[in-house]
Amino acid sequence: MKARFFIIPAIVLSAVACKQLEPEAPVVVPEETTEAGTWSITIQASKAVDTKALYLDTSGEKDVLNAYWLETEKVFVYSNSETYVGILDVIPDAGDKPTTATLSGTITAGTETIYVGDQIILKIPRPEWDYTGQVGTLASIQSNYDYAIAYVEVLAKDDENKTITTAAATFQNCQSIYRFSFKSGTSALSIKDLTISSAGNRIAISKDFSGFTTSWGSLTVTPAAATSDPLYVAISNGDMTDDTYNFIITGEDNALYSASKPIPARVLQADGKFISAKDITATQSDFGPSGETTTNAL
């Protein structure tokens, strides 16, 4: 099974909510259990929308965000009861920026009993589910914020060889990737930091493992240095109705700027999109971060 290629046209100002995946109820067959110990497992992986590693293709009429598997990626494995049991390596297929991969490694059941018919949970890119600390680059997103989860059914086990066979994994994204840039008047705005909030307080800051308990609030993106280049941000929105994103920007000149953009409901109904919102007009506020006044109202 292949890891599916993420090629989605840029949408000039749209957004996507993270919808929690509901695992199907496991079919438990008590007599078919694994004993506590280490088991080898190999899984063919695909994704419904995109894979974790990302690169931007600007060669066509519209920019698209393509995806591929990296050998350095790790997949974290959890039992049906959400207990951590191991890490799988990613073995990409041959070729430049491969879109297919095999996940391989061992899991340690410990005190867990894994039944044939249970679902094993796979998660990338890291155990923590936290959207804070973003720096505005695709490289940072692919390493830390491009979360995806898959539920795979245990189909069989080999007691003699200590192997577990599962169904193929189809990963589902839990956020979308946004590209933001701003202008003040006719000039590109150089940004020291960008804070994004939702009028409906629907931007996820962090989640528990299952995603059912979520902290909501604003995200602050701080690039390594002030830049007028677009900032890339992973955002999970918790609803499917209209929303508005509000922006507070600290410019390279240390002045504060504000901007806002409506987010239509039609683009908040699926995760895994690439949303481009460039040249948003920002207005300088009456108050700078040091208390100095400006000539424009917030």
Could you explain how this protein is built, in words?
- The chain has 298 residues and is mostly beta strands.
- Helices cover 2% and strands 44% of the residues.
- The chain is built from 1 helix and 22 strands.
- Strands 2, 5, 6, 7, 8, 9, 10 and 11 form an 8-stranded mixed beta sheet that branches.
- The chain is elongated.
- The N terminus and C terminus are likely disordered.
**Helix-strand topology string:** EEEEEEEEHEEEEEEEEEEEEEE
Which structural class do you get from the secondary structure elements? mainly beta
Strand residues, percent:
35-45%
Give the name of the CATH architecture of the largest domain.
Sandwich
Continuous helix count: 1
Helix content: under 10%
Global morphology: elongated
Distance between the termini: 52 Å
Any idea of the CATH topology of the largest domain?
Answer: Immunoglobulin-like
**For the record, what CATH class of the largest domain applies?**
Mainly Beta
Tally of strands? 22
